[in-house]
Amino acid sequence: MFTLESPFILLLSLPLWYCIYRCKLHYAPKNFVHLNLFAFKKQFVNWFNIIPYIIIFLMVFALSSPVQYDPYDPRNRNGINIVLSIDASGSMVSSGFDSTNHLKSRFEAVQDIASSFIKKRLQDNIGIVLFGDFAFIASPVTYENSVVAQMLQWLNSGMAGESTAIGEAIEQALRALDFATNSSKIIILLTDGKHNSGRISPKDAVTLAKKMDVKIYTIGIGKKGEYDSTLLKKIASDSGAEFFAASSAEDLKLVYEKIDLLHPSSLKSGEIPLKNNLSFPAVISALFLLLFWTMRRFKSEKL
Q1: What residue spans define the domains of the chain?
Q2: Do residues 43 and 98 lie in contact, with contact meaning Cβ atoms separated by under 8 Å?
Q3: How far apart (Å, rounded) are the C-alpha atoms in residues 201 and 216?
Q4: Distance of CA 152 to the CA centre of its chain
Q5: C-alpha dist (Å) from residue 188 to 169, 241, 261
Q6: Alpha carbon separation from 160 to 21, 88, 131, 163 (Å, rounded)
Q7: Residue 58, pLDDT score
Q8: What is the CA 288 to chain-centroid distance, rounded?
Q9: What distance in Å separates the CA atoms of residue 216 and residue 241, rounded to the nearest whole number?
Q10: What DSSP string describes 98-117?
Q11: pTM of the full structure
Q12: Based on the number of CB atoms within 10 Å of its own CB, is 187 exposed (0-12), middle (13-18) or buried (19 or more)?
């Protein structure tokens, strides 16, 4: 992507061009014996006189700080590190969560909605943790968001067992975030059940999260009473985040949109730290043209 950091400086070329046009040098007339040489000289001047205008433009163009950058370059990413910790227990196979497709399971609906969320977070590093009887890192935290979204579609409910290990879900998410370099880190934990498995309690896991300064947003999906809203609210509040409830796929979309607004991707701010400055090539081109123009003009004056 190409842009000018100071585009209004280009306006300086207008008065300079006007000055070149109006302030022309006058030479003493010369008599040529051969008319064919005069004709060649006139043809040469037509494009030769344009060179000073090009030189002025290139110099002013260099002053306007032209830069080229790639917003998708991982070195230009200044977003946050996010881990989606998703429940894949037996209850996630139940259908009816998506009103547009009653045959779609809760897990399949979550896959589609979470994938859309991942694809929108262009500046962020994202990972996935799946949990059931135990939790595991399905995708490490990475800037390859399209790959993460595709990886999510390959997962299935029941891959980690039938129970719900919320404590391990947080612990494994923290483990994934431990390798991330950016200081801003959050976990989005989604479940439709109650904690009933795992080797670490949610309380101990939240204590670890607080030490790492990681916020844990919690989402309970399904009907009220199916998930432990009290526990999810406690996890969110203790880590400095929020709890959300979603009884349908439409509600879940709104939840992810709210989280997206709470932590907007830094791409929207226009902050691009790594840039390829194009001022130097413009200056070099102007100097070469100036040298060429001076030499040709010197030769023409000798004729």
Answers
A1: 2-69+275-302, 74-268
A2: no
A3: 15
A4: 20
A5: 10, 10, 14
A6: 77, 7, 6, 8
A7: 79
A8: 38
A9: 6
A10: -TT-TTSBHHHHHHHHHHHH
A11: 0.66
A12: buried
CATH topology classification for 74-268: Rossmann fold (3.40.50)
The CA-atom distances, in angstroms, between 45 and each of 18, 86, 126, 150 are 18, 73, 61, 62
User: Cα dist. 277→7, 78, 153, 162 in Å?
Assistant: 14, 20, 40, 55
Angle at CA of residue 185, ends 122 and 82, nearest 5°: 45
> Is the Cβ–Cβ distance between 189 and 161 less than 8 Å?
no
Q: Which residues of the chain have pLDDT under 50?
A: 35, 37-45, 75-76, 267-272
Q: Is 202 buried (19+), middle (13-18) or exposed (0-12) by CB count in 10 A? A: buried
Q: Is the dihedral of CA 174, 176, 179, 185 positive or negative?
A: negative
Distances (CA, A) of 200 to 196, 203, 269: 11, 8, 39
For residue 96, count other CB atoms closer than 10 A to its CB.
15
